[in-house]
User: What shape does this take?
Amino acid sequence: MDETEMAKERGTAAPAARPDERLSGRLGIVVDGKTVAVLRMEGGGATLEPGNGETRANVHVTSMDDLGRIARGELNLIVASLRGILSLRGDLSFGVRALRALERGITVQGADRNWTRNGG
Amino acid sequence: MSTVSILDGNTFVVSDHRGDIEASPTDTMGLFLNDTRFLSRWVLTIDGLRPTLLSADDLAYFRVQFFLALATGTIYVDSKLSIVRRRSICDGFREELEIVNHDRQPVTLKVRLEAASDFADLFEVKDKMTKKGELYHKVENGRLLLGYKRESFRRETIISSSAPGEVKDDGLSFEVYLEPQASWNTSIDVSASFLRAVREPKARPRGSQPEGDPQMGRDLAKWIDEAPRLVASWEPLGNIYKRSLIDLAALRFATGIGPGALPAAGLPWFMAVFGRDSLITSFQALPFAPELAATTLSTLALFQGQSMDPFRDEEPGKIMHELRLGELTAFEERPHSPYYGSADGTMLFLILLEEYVRWTGDRALAQELEPEARGAISWIDRYGDRDGDGYVEYERRVAETGLDNQCWKDSWNSIAFADGTIAPTPRATCELQGYVYDAKMRIARLAREVWGDPGWAAALEQQAAELKERFNRDFWLPERNFYALALDGKKRKVDSLTSNIGHLLWSGIADDDKAQSCVHHLMGEDLFSGWGVRTMATSEASYNPIGYHVGTVWPHDNSIIAWGLRRYGYKAESAMICRAMLEAANLFRGRLPEAFGGYPRRDTHYPVEYPTACSPQAWATGAPLLFLRALLGLDSDERHLIVDPAIPEPLGQIELLDLPGCWGRMDAFGRARAVRETGPSPIPAS
Assistant: This one.
């Protein structure tokens, strides 16, 4: 166990943070100009759904796998944006929060194994 | 070379006094946006000659005009041409070029603007690096397009003119015929473009905002109008105050993620979001512009650390250090996406949150940020204290890219023993422990009064009390009568005398009797230069009056020390620092730089400039605001404005009208009295 791991085991933890229920809304996922799916954030959880409809924000990506790489912790959100393979439109505050949740490794209902760290 | 800068947020143009840009690979001339240089050459010639400067006038932080003439080479022949370049910033810049013929004869001129871009990342400029991608240029639809491509990373500069001309790969040329007394003008737009591989709706090109300039003028007028009004009998104070407000306006940085703006750290190297700098500047400016604090807190909360990432020094709950948007960040050759290598930002986040709520009464923000506050406290205990000794310490996880020092004195040699030996890591600097103490005490108040969690509040207060007790035992140097700068990696006390002890007064962690000794040192000749408290005392082996963190005087450091002295009741000493720093500011024409030389005032009579200081720099800009707060003794109990002035004689009377806060708007007055006589704690004789 390295020092960091030891640190995790040690210390007085603050009371657990409540689930991030502030995060509520639909994030459209747009590939090649078309909305291919929606990430619904609700009650601290996330669900990937087909279809389109009204969204708070849209994330434009070159492919669905870009989001999979973010969810697997392989692609940093800022890096993706700077390299021009991801951009956000709409309510940016919500969009960033949703993508940061994805980056954090939140479990996404309805997503395939490629969205899971270590392949599930 | 002396330069002229205009800026808005993280967009800035640095040129020479003629308005020309001739960047070398290692200097900061150019047009910069998002940490990338979009224009590195911009040179005006007329008939092959470089006009000479008559005057360069900063009309506003976002607008400048250059008056030029074509030199004749002799004082006996007047120049027949006036040239005016009016430049204003938007998402690039717009330049209005006007040429007037004062001759009785018509004239035909060849006007040329050379243009080029190296698309250097700011870090490449700073660290003398070479580029890895491909530069290109082309003429398209009468516009000059300069570009850079590295995989999917593409940036372009587009240059267009309102007057018809010849556009080539290296610039624009105009054949101009002028009758006697006639004038010619053109408007040239230089706009930056961030191209993406992803297909997305077409956005308005950056830089195409002809309304940008007047809008910024209105915005600045509103900003000044909404700030408290200062009436001061010492005339320079009004200029210093106005300069601070204008520079703060210039440094505001809208991320676009949410409403509002937060302060970027400083021109030219640090026009980015910095945790520590934005937090401290927002603290300094809180009584004057509380909205900066709200935006800073919300933005930093959004990027709070959430995983273990050694490359970025990221840990769950940690507040970020620095966010950069250039090429090196994009290719992860630098860790700033964002980088989390500061050990104090997390505590400063908590301190500012409580201070903001107490000043404004805006409990809604505290409610909104409760999860982040809990996460930050958790970081202190679980990750900040790396080895379980009860103190927060730091050590970078990746030597090649991480910061060696992760406290505010972040240069390599700042944490040294009295004999000059550099302290080994991990380093637990003293002010970090003070910040932990203060953060826990403040968050305990929010837990009890806002979040309805008295159990957690009591636990935090207990932890803070225990920290204070062991800190006063473990960091005290009885043989020198001050606190150690740090505990090093072997838990040895780093025994040099530094300004850090002043931060312990701000945080409240110092025992009263020990605080008295610290005040004695802070105001003694070894630390106090006559202009301010030096970062390191002249008595220490590492001392250098122009050493970045080992002898220079930092205005923001002094503002924190002055406010800390007030906390312990040392009003006269606080006022002495405020007065000296404001006198220095006056000699710097109202604008305090990031740092200046630590030479004794009695020898130099003028504060000596530090060669590479950022100016304007956010927390130096905020320092006069905290000095004003200290002089008037302004505080809040979340219901009332508290005013307790201690103003030294030369500053006379100070009035701050319409101070915003939880009380709405209130006025504060103070006039000079013999504050030493009323001070509660006289300094012991040396």
